[in-house]
Write a structure and sequence with these properties.
Structural class: alpha+beta
Shape: globular
Radius of gyration: 23 Å
Helix content: 25-40%
Largest sheet: 11 strands, antiparallel
Number of helices: 8
């Protein structure tokens, strides 16, 4: 299954909808639910699993919601079947998920909405772009019919915007925001638009980056977005969100073959660098120190997330960052996780770290996954595997799985960084 190419705050909204469906359908004690995506061909998928099989709800460009006539993308794979096949109706879905028909109908209706939202969120990323500046900085922008929207303050600080005929500087004058063409032409007052992120301005004709730079920037940003979106559990967020908080820039990465353009994205203490010639590989810099080189996007995401949790946590049940001490539901959760060590797969013990991030408990399990407690009263947790797959599961079930090829590849990358950067004593890649 493909890892999520984009993650972050919008996934919280998607996960809340999944959670609501799971609770409403009364299936919180039945199997697990996974989320995956792919950008080309673009689709968004939610997969339900039971002891009798898998059911995949798929949203894509051919999405037609008419399950009664068998004309929308629901796939069933019964135990023993080599491949998934289109679902014949709600009855078959109920059988494959091992659910009563009425519960299956609720799940079908709910997951239909979920995949619609997920696909819409993925598709919306194509509307975001980056505007070139004279100093190598790239400004995040939103393409509209009126022109490209950029943050006013960022536009003023950037210097010259655009590198072609529509190049100008931006400044405030009284209540207005004005663009002064660099060729000495007459300055024009720019249209202002207030968004949920702040005050934006329309830049007519501003040149955006090439497709190669766009993909590299997207990968650099995505590598720093957590698989489990880090916002408040009930904070209202639009699912169509790509609003980088850090800074983008283009630099020449000097290598064996000479200078190669690369996109840098810096947010906080982390910088991700992606060559425009290979947007699948990421270099990580923490502060002034090179942290990892030539790793995949999901591996970078896993390393950054693990580093954050370990810095904010203590091993096992001890956590100094808990706002009101360790809750009983979290203590029960950790007890279950530590109990996995008794399983053959976890033989030898497991390193577990707990941290509160934005008042939400997170658990990092070395070599396995990152977990967030979603609904403690019904025991629902959310997991991010090393490969980037998001997994929604019932805590009290036996959450154990063999490492798949994608997970093993990421963990191999992580172990390679352990050997290469063992001196980083505060990092999650310490040599035991």
């Amino acid at each position: 299954m493909e890892y999520l190419r984009v993650t972050g705050a919008w996934m919280n909204e998607i996960n809340r909808h999944i959670d609501d469906v799971v609770v409403k359908a009364g299936v919180s004690d039945r199997g697990g639910w996974r989320v995956s995506s792919m950008d080309w061909p673009r689709y968004f998928q939610v997969v339900g699993e039971s002891e009798k099989g898998l059911v995949g709800f798929v949203g894509d460009s051919d999405f037609v919601c008419d399950i009664d006539n068998g004309t929308w993308a629901v796939w069933c794979q019964h135990v023993g079947q080599a491949h998934a096949v289109p679902a014949g109706g709600v009855e078959e879905i109920a059988e494959c998920l091992d659910l009563p028909l009425d519960r299956a109908s609720i799940a079908v209706a709910g997951m239909t909405e979920v995949v619609e939202r997920g696909y819409a969120a993925l598709s919306n990323y194509g509307d975001w772009t980056l505007v070139e500046t004279s100093g190598g900085r790239l400004l995040p922008g939103l393409m509209t019919q009126r022109g490209t929207l950029v943050d006013i303050d960022r536009a003023i600080r950037a210097g010259r915007l655009g590198l072609g005929k529509a190049a100008y500087t931006v400044d405030r004058d009284g209540e207005g925001v004005w663009a002064q063409p660099v060729d000495g032409g007459e300055r024009i007052e720019l249209e202002r638009i207030n968004t949920r992120w702040g005050s934006y301005v329309v830049l007519p004709g501003a040149e955006t980056v090439t497709e190669e730079v766009h993909y590299a920037a997207w990968a650099a940003w995505s590598a720093q977005e957590p698989a489990l979106g880090r916002v408040g559990p009930r904070e209202s967020k639009d699912v169509y969100e790509w609003h980088p908080r850090g800074d983008f820039g283009v630099a020449i990465a000097v290598g064996e073959d000479g200078g190669v353009p690369a996109v840098r994205y810096q947010s906080g203490e982390w910088t991700t660098v992606v060559s425009i010639e290979d947007a699948e590989l990421v270099n990580l810099v923490k502060g002034e120190q090179t942290y990892a080189t030539g790793i995949s996007v999901p591996a970078a995401r896993f390393l950054i997330e693990a580093d954050l949790i370990r810095q904010a946590s203590q091993p096992g049940l001890s956590t100094s960052t808990a706002p009101e001490g360790l809750s009983q539901e979290l203590a029960d959760m950790i007890e279950v996780i530590c109990g996995w060590a008794d399983n053959d797969f976890w033989a030898g013990g497991v390193d577990v770290r707990v941290a509160y991030l934005d008042a939400v408990p997170y658990v990092w399990v070395d070599g396995a996954c990152i977990i967030r407690l979603v609904e403690g009263d019904v025991g629902i947790v959310e997991l991010a595997r090393p490969c980037g797959e998001v997994w929604r599961e019932v805590l009290w079930s036996n959450i154990v799985w063999p490492l798949e090829e994608e997970d093993a590849l990421v963990l191999d990358e992580v172990n390679r960084q352990r050997r290469a950067h063992a001196a980083a004593s505060s990092s999650p890649v310490e040599t035991p």
